Amino acid sequence: xxxxxxxxxxxxxxxxxxxxxxxxxxxxxxxxxxxxxxxxxxxxxxxxxxxxxxxxxxxxxxxxxxxxxxxxxxxxxxxxxxxxxxxxxxxxxxxxxxxxxxxxxxxxxxxxxxxxxxxxxxxxxxxxxxxxxxxxxxxxxxxxxxxxxxxxxxxxxxxxxxxxxxxxxxxxxxxxxxxxxxxxxxxxxxxxxxxxxxxxxxxxxxxxxxxxxxxxxxxxxxxxxxxxxxxxxxxxxxxxxxxxxxxxxxxxxxxxxxxxxxxxxxxxxxxxxxxxxxxxxxxxxxxxxxxxxxxxxxxxxxxxxxxxxxxxxxxxxxxxxxxxxxxxxxxxxxxxxxxxxxxxxxxxxxxxxxxxxxxxxxxxxxxxxxxxxxxxxxxxxxxxxxxxxxxxxxxxxxxxxxxxxxxxxxxxxxxxxxxxxxxxxxxxxxxxxxxxxxxxxxxxxxxxxxxxxxxxxxxxxxxxxxxxxxxxxxxxxxxxxxxxxxxxxxxxxxxxxxxxxxxxxxxxxxxxxxxxxxxxxxxxxxxxxxxxxxxxxxxxxxxxxxxxxxxxxxxxxxxxxxxxxxxxxxxxxxxxxxxxxxxxxxxxxxxxxxxxxxxxxxxxxxxxxxxxxxxxxxxxxxxxxxxxxxxxxxxxxxxxxxxxxxxxxxxxxxxxxxxxxxxxxxxxxxxxxxxxxxxxxxxxxxxxxxxxxxxxxxxxxxxxxxxxxxxxxxxxxxxxxxxxxxxxxxxxxxxxxxxxxxxxxxxxxxxxxxxxxxxxxxxxxxxxxxxxxxxxxxxxxxxxxxxxxxxxxxxxxxxxxxxxxxxxxxxxxxxxxxxxxxxxxxxxxxxxxxxxxxxxxxxxxxxxxxxxxxxxxxxxxxxxx
Length: 865
Fold this sequence. Notes:
This protein is an alpha+beta fold. Helix content is about 45%, strand content about 15%. It has 36 helices and 19 strands. β10 and β11 (about 720-730) form a beta hairpin. α5 packs antiparallel against α6, α8 crosses α9 and α11 (about 245-265) packs parallel to α22 (about 460-480). It is globular, with a radius of gyration of 34 Å.
């Protein structure tokens, strides 16, 4: 029965761990994971193959049930292949160091060290380095480097065999052949050293007795041997990884519980609290509340609204999710596994199987229980192991050896195992498919399929653990979007380009973004009934001590009422000219009396008076101000000048100067419909992302973007040709547009600062940097935004008689809208010789109706307004 099978597996795992000598290893990992959990440091649900172990799950090292996801222990520990287990752990990236410090304290700093890594000259990189050393033109070298497929494990020799264009250049171009030959000789050699992102080694005695040590630039002690050498020496390597998403989940849940508690105490009707109560949530929310079968969460993911959702927020993955339309956690696991170079080729087959499950066929009924969750596709390494075990009678350990041979493309081993798989091997205890009633032809066909899929098959244990994290972030976005986005924004506050993306995503979800506020805000972003309150930590020139002082003083002595009040209650270190101006321009003082311009004009006098009063108080002097009553004090406070607020454009520009982005609004807000309809990419898609290792747009892909021209650089190149480099800013950031000579001459009249343009073109991508757009065509927003004013005339002669009067009326109120002349006779539109721009919102329309008749004048609004 099920209980007995579970006990047998547990005993098998425990015996294996004991017999292989890894009991202490598990206890060491359990110890520091337990420290993290006891100290409220978020720990990931699992990472890598350790999630396939029941023992890891029962100890609390991992947090996903391996039986629910059909995960295999042998993918983690193989009794027939003695190697060190590898339990990598994710911790909150803000508090990861606390766990490492605990390990150092427990085992001694002389026994713990970080691990060195050597960056090597990979295929593309070595060609660029050699090309630079040979002083070859950058564009020439870049063209050759890009012909090497961007796949894991790719080398130059393999690239020459798979890319005909690269081979043709190699055979026909002597310079290219020399570049490539030199690069092959250097490929794989160390290029630089760095510290392993997560690896820490622990030794029984002082670590210097086992390996040579070195000091990094920042003073950290590292080994001089890399990770694999340390393992060969028998030293214990642990991985402590920092995962930002765990911090986001922790902070979002904290905000949710704070708001729910406040809502219960005050009877709040905030929509988030109401949503929580509607689902029966009256307790403290934890990740246990996140039902992995919740259809609302999968509907959100299927819509492509995945900004901030772990592993699913890249543009390509969002499109994949919209096409896949996941309905269960298995679909998310498969999505994470398939969306990589190589496995992507099988995505159409997977989607077809999901959409037409009744048409999925299996070569033998024995395959159905193994491949049904992935609609007939082999997606995971564990499935390869299960197939050879269930169909050919392989042992647990040997099935992993076959999986390794296939994934590493060891031809000789694979051909040897083919015979064993099909016909069996009595001496080695393999029964074989034929002896299990599967025909020779079918067995060979299955083996061929395994070879195709196994090259790219992914570790399901790792994908399942990360899919759970993906689901948790999606659940938070689905049910508590304000808290989720607030936590996400706090986590990337120093990354302005990503911050813009999340702010735009929040606005599209109907959430207002509110400016920071000294009376209600904190350092971090907050979810409030009105929307998301911007964190004061994002204001330039405002450090954490200043923010803490502002909040502490407010909590102890109440809200700030005026500039005088603020300046009087904070020290000169906490509130000086620079911080005061930053607070005013960011909107953090909007809740105080007066508008931003008034406060800016009065701020210096306020600070000077506050400083003088503090000086008198320090010397024990009483001022006339101290002797006054409350009414008299009000009369001598610094008076705000009687001036109007900044114009919207200036106000937004000043706001951006201290926040890095617009909060109160955006200059392009009125053009959102146009941008949605006419563009297929945003500036954020051109940004290089360290986490994904790429951009959201594809090299050489065709895209249209829209935005405001903020910078222009005109350069003259060879043959006196002119090029323009334009910075175009949209709702999510900026992108560089390159306009070559031919197109520059066509569009030079449109290329001017503050012009709003739609630009179509081809993407130019480089490794490890932002992509650019090569312009092929451009047009102004006005070409689409303007309304049309139709004026009807009976005949052409009638129009000719009244044309001068028409132009005279239009000239009274010029604008961005266009006049269309309709001639009733013949029913055609008259193309006038002059451009007649008009303001369709002004009084000119009434004048036209008076002159030509109301029935002959009509305004057709732009659908993008």
